[in-house]
Specification:
The complex is a heterodimer of chains A (332) and B (501).
Chain A lengths: L5 H13 L3 H17 L5 H27 L2 E2 L9 E2 L3 H8 L1 H33 L7 H13 L2 H12 L5 H8 L14 H26 L3 H9 L4 H29 L3 H6 L11 H10 L4 H35 L1
Antiparallel strand pairs in A: 1-2
Chain B lengths: L1 H13 L2 H6 L2 H28 L6 E9 L3 H8 L1 H11 L3 E9 L1 H12 L8 E3 L5 H5 L8 H6 L10 H7 L12 E4 L3 E6 H4 L4 H9 L7 H5 L3 H10 L8 E4 L10 H10 L19 H12 L13 H9 L3 E7 L3 H4 L8 E4 L4 E2 L5 E2 L2 E2 L3 E5 L5 H14 L2 H9 L7 H4 L4 H4 L3 H8 L2 E2 L7 H16 L6 H19 L16
Parallel strand pairs in B: 1-2, 1-3, 6-7, 11-13
Antiparallel strand pairs in B: 3-12, 4-12, 5-7, 5-8, 9-10
Classes of the chains: A mainly alpha (332), B alpha/beta (501).
Chain lengths: 332, 501
Amino acid sequence: MLGNDPLIRTVGRVEVAAASPSRRGSADRGHTGFVTFLGRREVLPSVLIAPVVIFFIIWNTIPTLWLIGLSFYRFSLTSGRAPIFSGFYNYVSIINDGATWLDLSRTFIFVVLAVGIETVAGFFLGLLFWGSDRLPGRRVALTLLFAPMVVTPVAAGTFWRLIYDPTFGVLDWFITLLGFPAVRFLSDANLAFWAVLAVDIWMWTPFMVLMAMAGLGSVPRAELEAAEIDRLTLWQRFRLVILYHGKFILMLGILLRTIDAFKTMDLIFDMTYGGPGTATKLVAMTLFRSAFESFNMGSSSALAVILLLISIAFTATFLYVLYIRERRAAEA
Amino acid sequence: MSKETDAPAGAFAAISKSKLNRIGRRQLIQGSAALGASVALPRYAFSQSEKKSPLAGKSIHMQILGIAGWLPSKLGVDMSPDFAKYAKDKYGYDVSFSFADAPFGTLFQKAATSLATRSQEYNIIISDSQWLGALATPGWIVQLNDIIAKNPELNIEWWSPSIRSSYQVFPDGTDKLWGFPQVGDIIGIFVRKDILEGPGEAEAFKAKHGRDLPKTWEDFEKMDFDQWVELISFFDRPEKGYRGFAAQYSREYDAATCPTMSFMRSTGGDVWDPKTGQVEGVLDTPSNAKAMELYKSWLKYQPPGATNYFIAEVIDAFTQGKVFAAWQWVATGKTMIPPSLEGKVIVVPPPGFKKSDGTLYRNYIIGGQPWVINAFNDPEHMQVAVDFMKWWYLPETSKDYLKRGGMPCDKATCAAADFDGINPWNRTYKYMLLRSSDFWHDPKYSEMLSDMQEAITGYYTGQIKDPLHALNWVACQQQKILYDEGTAQKAAQAQCSGMTL
């Protein structure tokens, strides 16, 4: 395309005329040829995406392949011994380890509850903000609402740990002020999981609000007005118009949150370190401890591969659901 | 140097001829001699230091990795300018220091990830004592035997045998030395003396328990566990806003493990056999389970949420007047006794266990950290690291360190007549060093600790009901770890397969 540009051709002629030696002319022809080559339909896109592909291969593909390879070795960084090829030993050990299954099941419960509550609360709040365009202070309220989402999880974990502290924390101060006994939010094995879950919901509901508002923004006003004229009930308007148009962006939000919640480690690390006992030990915490406390690089790689496969399964399922719409549209 | 040579020359030139004529011959000779000495001596001294150190005239930067928020680690850096001055005078080179740190729980991670890349980012590392095996086995730190042989001043007599076994030796029982003690540390009990000596307390205590309220260090030294519980229950007064006691039960790092093991060992149990690597049958015993029950029973005299207490939380509880007494590493002494509590706190040994013959027995876990030297240091940094160690153990450095709140381990300093009086915890420190020892100098320390912490905190927080079950699970896990590693001779028993907490 560029090679056919009249401006370039003009400039080329002027340069050729100005630079009399033939060598100059051949360099220009080379330059023009290169530009023409780059401008070819099959070359230019490849050239443009090449940096991204190279970056992806260096920082993603090679480490992933390395990780998969390492998962077939018994290798501890602190043992002073060379890695030993062990086939599927690490995978079999993980599958036979009851503790890993418990961690996984605890993680699934955490993901379902966190993402479920965040989605419902986020969508509800999104609806409220969607219908409050002229409300004074809306922007301030939205800014405050999104604040938890932009806080670093480690910082959030630290100040929630302090808020929850039964001796010095502000929450228990209020509780005891009301005449109730102090609650041991993070040191009671029955409460710690819920206390951490509450913080995750506090942090990430704003994200679902954002997604809900984006989804609701895609709902055509005309259809809403038509639904109103047709005297559809509120529930029917919500189900047939709002949810119909908004659900796909919302699904994307759920997908992103699911994958993210599945990896929750930083919040746990700072608030409970997986305790009391194993009450808040999610599988990402297990992976962190295996890799960076015990330095069992082989078995932690195997666990990472298993978690990667689970995340891929999540993604595939959600993408399948998302593409149903396109398929149906194509079939129609 | 140029200034030193130019200045006298200039001064000499300034003397007028007439004045020179008035100066006598003797004065002239004396002046010339002084002038010559002022020019030559610094050069001579410098040339001597050049002879002593191949680094003379060079400028070197060192980085120390230590524990964040930990006074003894900080002192190592705070005092480094003194070493810079010393090195300049003695060896003729310039040295500057920077400090990197991480909390206890993540320091090993920070060190290991750097050392695994063969980096000399951290030239000297303040390691926790149990990490010696994990740092030495891959060859990340320097074995010090040759360095000590070449530098006899580093062959130091320590206050107790546990110093060498805890901070220097790996594997246990060998002569292979890997670390120098940076700070010795033991578990002590900080008691609010002002509350203890409050009006009417002694009479009330005697009326309730039929014996005198302990007041002096000697009284506490004679105290057994039952008497200790009587004391903290007596001073447990939630209605007045403070509780009887604070100790460490947290899931973080080794918070719950150290006191639990202290209870186990002091009641006659053990945690493993370091010679055979056997854990099953050693750790999971009724005696150890009972020790866990005992430690858990003390929670009822502690503030709510005490199961989340680690070092910082205990400091907060104690310094803010929320507890009467606190179980704490004495290395935190300066923080545990801020100016507002000076003169109001007595630091005493933790209670002993009464044996069948009536004698008291204490076998507590030792704290403290050694210096270790990065094996990937280039020769220059290695030389500075060795020079730094030689300076660190000079008597005057040890004394300065002690006065700033640090705890030296050399016998000369600890045995000095004024040692006990310099800090309120010094006497207890010396006493308990003789009754404390380390655990698990094994490359798999971190993994073993993680399992131990998980199980025992599960019991302390009520997630696990049976302490023996918790210990059975730990023993299975640790036996498997050590067998896989090649340390244990026996594999974990078949019943371990599929066992969960």
